[in-house]
């Protein structure tokens, strides 16, 4: 009997439970036993696991978050932790591990794979920045939430003749800002891929005002930064185990600068973790389910060291090494579509 461990790492994301459900149920058809690993890689270090059965995953498809819990633990930060992880793989008789996560979680999976541990990856991030796949589940849900927020902010911005700055997630890639900004009719979209020029942003908004449009919507990714600034704006200098600081504050920075330059009232809405929460969209439920089924099939075929991915409309397997080699940043052709409407 093959025993498969399943874990979710990094930030929570709508659709994680759909993957877990699909791996457990498809695995059962392949004759696998499933073990849930609590709180990402931390659970494998601490030996915190539980059996996963058909009953365990009943009713979890529409539920946000992850029933297994998550963390940003990096077992490679400590040799003792890495040894405990390897000992627990043997202790619990794990023949394979399904690691569901983004760049950091899959980076650990890739290193473990190179050490000979049978691992299959499933890409997860609302930021849509994992390489090797066209889309990650969770992204569509986040975009839908942000788009609805922009729609709601439009009415109050227009009523009060305000500039509304909407700060959204996106550390290194501005996919959410770009796609939701286009869908919501934003008047300026600022992303990490392109340092923004405050003079240029101000000019666009002033032109719009002079044309009789007394309000504007500015969407900014948390990792966006003005030209000349060395690093993105952070809430603190404290870093997690993967070296990331907690971003946030670029929206307030923009408010202060735009009020000085335009003599207009500017309000900020930071959507934060609202983007991660709640029930996944139909698109994300289906994509996550397809990923989970494909991951179980890879284990059946003993095709390890791979990540399932969406290419066009097909689910394929790509090497984990390829998936974590580079972040997938915003398609500049898509971003240029947004810029057509600046100053309009």
From TrEMBL:
Site (Important for catalytic activity): 124
Subcellular location: Cytoplasm
UniProt pathway annotation: Carbohydrate degradation; glycolysis; D-glyceraldehyde 3-phosphate and glycerone phosphate from D-glucose: step 3/4
Keyword line: Cytoplasm, Glycolysis, Kinase, Magnesium, Metal-binding, Transferase
Site (Important for catalytic activity and substrate specificity): 104
Binding positions (diphosphate): 11
Active site: 127 (proton acceptor)
InterPro entries: ATP_PFK_prok-type (IPR012003), Phosphofructokinase_CS (IPR015912), Phosphofructokinase_dom (IPR000023), Phosphofructokinase_III (IPR012829)
UniProt: substrate binding residues: 125-127, 162, 169-171, 222, 267, 273-276
Pfam families: PFK
Cleaved signal peptide residues: none
Domain Phosphofructokinase stretches: 4-299
Regulation affecting activity: Non-allosteric.
Cofactor(s) listed in the protein's UniProt record: Mg(2+)
Tagged with keyword Magnesium: yes
Amino acids binding Mg(2+): 103
Location (main, coarse): cytoplasm
Record field: catalytic activity: beta-D-fructose 6-phosphate + diphosphate = beta-D-fructose 1,6-bisphosphate + phosphate + H(+)
Function of the protein: Catalyzes the phosphorylation of D-fructose 6-phosphate, the first committing step of glycolysis. Uses inorganic phosphate (PPi) as phosphoryl donor instead of ATP like common ATP-dependent phosphofructokinases (ATP-PFKs), which renders the reaction reversible, and can thus function both in glycolysis and gluconeogenesis. Consistently, PPi-PFK can replace the enzymes of both the forward (ATP-PFK) and reverse (fructose-bisphosphatase (FBPase)) reactions.
Record-linked NCBIfam families: PFK_mixed, PRK03202.1
Protein name: Pyrophosphate--fructose 6-phosphate 1-phosphotransferase
Native source organism of the sequence: Methanoculleus chikugoensis
